């Protein structure tokens, strides 16, 4: 602490100003961070950013609507591409990335929020590993398909 006792002419005022500016900038950034995290101002900024992201990923909603109409009418003869393998557990109304951007006030983010049809991916979600096609109707009365294999109802009756 010997530098505090120096005369005013020997102290470096340039170093003090630089440290003061750095300290003020740091505290300013901390205050802005707390304002964005703990006030509704951050929610509105997140919502506006989310809207910009959605608009950039779905550039032409008319083209998407035409393609969906063709698929529903059965006139689209080209195969629809498969979604990535990470989309196996995709649940559009329970998307954690979407829910993390919603308001925390009154647990609004925990409610179910389904995306608009224009925001949903236009691809086929692959079945999970080990998925088997269900047993058709008449056979399903006496047969149950489980992960280990198929069992007849006679096994349960003998049990």
From TrEMBL:
<keyword id="KW-0472">Membrane</keyword>
<keyword id="KW-1133">Transmembrane helix</keyword>
<keyword id="KW-0808">Transferase</keyword>
<dbReference type="GO" id="GO:0005768">
    <property type="term" value="C:endosome"/>
</dbReference>
<dbReference type="GO" id="GO:0016020">
    <property type="term" value="C:membrane"/>
</dbReference>
<dbReference type="GO" id="GO:0032259">
    <property type="term" value="P:methylation"/>
</dbReference>
<keyword id="KW-0812">Transmembrane</keyword>
<keyword id="KW-0489">Methyltransferase</keyword>
<keyword id="KW-0735">Signal-anchor</keyword>
<protein>
    <recommendedName>
        <fullName>Methyltransferase</fullName>
        <ecNumber>2.1.1.-</ecNumber>
    </recommendedName>
</protein>
<keyword id="KW-0325">Glycoprotein</keyword>
<comment type="similarity">
    <text>Belongs to the methyltransferase superfamily.</text>
</comment>
<dbReference type="InterPro" id="IPR004159">
    <property type="entry name" value="Put_SAM_MeTrfase"/>
</dbReference>
<feature type="transmembrane region" description="Helical">
    <location>
        <begin position="21"/>
        <end position="41"/>
    </location>
</feature>
<dbReference type="GO" id="GO:0008757">
    <property type="term" value="F:S-adenosylmethionine-dependent methyltransferase activity"/>
</dbReference>
<dbReference type="GO" id="GO:0005802">
    <property type="term" value="C:trans-Golgi network"/>
</dbReference>
<dbReference type="Pfam" id="PF03141">
    <property type="entry name" value="Methyltransf_29"/>
</dbReference>
């Amino acid at each position: 602490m010997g530098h505090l006792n120096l005369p005013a002419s020997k102290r470096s005022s340039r170093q003090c100003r630089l440290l003061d500016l750095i300290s003020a900038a740091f505290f300013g950034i901390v205050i802005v961070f707390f304002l964005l995290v703990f006030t509704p101002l951050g929610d509105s900024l997140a919502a506006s950013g989310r809207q910009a992201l959605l608009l950039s990923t779905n550039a032409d909603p008319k083209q998407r609507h035409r393609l969906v109409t063709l698929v529903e009418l059965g006139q689209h003869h080209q195969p629809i591409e498969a979604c990535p393998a990470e989309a196996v557990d995709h649940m559009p109304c329970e998307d954690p990335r979407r829910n993390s951007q919603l308001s925390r006030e009154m647990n609004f983010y925990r409610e179910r929020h389904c995306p608009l049809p224009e925001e949903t991916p236009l691809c086929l979600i692959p079945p999970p590993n080990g998925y088997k096609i269900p047993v058709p109707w008449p056979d399903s009365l006496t047969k149950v398909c489980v992960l280990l294999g198929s069992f007849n109802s006679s096994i349960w009756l003998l049990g």
